[in-house]
Amino acid sequence: MFKKVILAFVAAFACAIVSAQEEPARADGYKYVNASEFPVFGKVAEGTTYRYSRLPASLEEVSRKSVWNLGLNSAGVYVRFRTDAPALRVRWTSLNKHYMNHMSPTGDRGIDVYALTADGWRFVKSGRPSREAVTDTQIIENMIPQMREFMVYMSLYDGVTDMEIAVPEGCTLEGPALDSPSVKKPVIMYGTSILQGGCATRPGMAYTNIISRRLDREVINLGFSGNAKLDYEIAELMASVKDPGLFVLDYAPNCTSELIEEKGEKFFRILRDAHPDVPIIFVEQTPYSFMEFDQELRETLLKKMETQKQLFKKLKSQGEKKIYYIKGDKMVGADGDAFVDGTHLTDLGMLRYADLVTPVIKKVLKKNK
Fold first, then answer.
1. What is the pLDDT of residues 37-47, one digit of tens each?
2. Cβ distance 238 to 275 under 8 Å?
3. Using an 8 Å Cβ cutoff, are 202 and 112 in contact?
4. CB 297 within 8 A of CB 290
């Protein structure tokens, strides 16, 4: 009996040590406010498992397991607040302590802080993740104490399960006063690992977030790494949005030509039946950097591009008016420097994608007013 008590004590002591390692002390002189006090954006629906995950809990038993797990990632989700503080800290908890060997930890499971200025949203600093589940880090100090609007982007490839914003005691910390990015008629983008944010060095550089800042409009990121395979429940989820401004479909890199032929039109119809007047943009397969050298891959991708193009032509021939097509051949340049591994995008690639796609989105939105 005595031995069991000792073992239990040792186990409890060990757990306390682990807990202490994963729960860094809060900074002295700062007040911590749970970010649940502030509005969250970039989500297609409420009722998610965690506040900062992307799929409603109702899909857990419906979606493929890989899609569901990726939906727990916080890509494109952000919180908004304002403060007059001269300094700012952020404390957050990561779901998986995720790691990938071709992506910066800051993009993978870090966070990004932006401030609204006279010139629009400006990057302040990143929160670099610790090796533990919980990170508590100083973002900025020595600012002129005046009221500013802030935005914190969540991790791209890990889930944020909890977040706190901290400012020095005595400072104001409250919800945003401005609707920026505007939540009216959000742009909903569906796609692959690249759309999810692979492999931006930090969350603010994911092209969905870049486009959102440039449009000053909420953009919802439904990128599912390796799994944008035209799952109908995702189309139904997108279609459930009450007043969308635009749908962007960039699923081709994860699909075969056969899958596009089998499921592409029905996926489109789910959106169109729910929103007859909402524009839908199809994005062609992005040519990978090694497509020039790998001839078998080249033939596969060219076939896929043609299949996507034929689907679009078919829909046009059926009388669809508010559909648009973005070719992929010049999407990220021809020098190969837009890629990390030949497939996923560097920050340069993310910028080039945004440079090509944003004007099209702006034109379509303006035309559909």
1. 999 999 999 99
2. no
3. yes
4. yes
Neighbours of 38 (CB within 10 A): 19
DSSP 237-277: HHHT-SS-SEEEEE-GGG--HHHHHHHHHHHHHHHHHH-TT
Based on its alpha-carbon atoms, the radius of gyration of the chain, rounded to whole angstroms, reads: 22
For residues 272 and 297, which has the higher predicted lDDT (pLDDT)? 272
CA dist 353 → 31, 171, 327 (Å): 40, 40, 11
Which pLDDT does position 290 carry in this prediction?
87
- How far apart CA 98 and CA 23 sit, in angstroms, is 18
For residue 10, what are the contacts with CB-CB under 8 A and spacing of at least 6?
none
Helix (H) or strand (E) segment spanning residue 166: strand 160-168
Residue 11: predicted pLDDT: 37
- Give dist(CA 285, CA 326) in Å, integer: 9
**CA–CA separation, 313 vs 311, rounded Å?**
5
Q: Tell me if 154 sits within 8 A of 112, measured CB to CB.
A: no
pLDDT digits (tens, 9 = 90+) for 213-261: 999 999 999 999 999 999 999 999 999 999 999 999 999 999 999 999 9
User: How far is residue 261 from each of residues 132, 206, 279, 284, measured CA to CA in Å?
Assistant: 45, 29, 21, 14
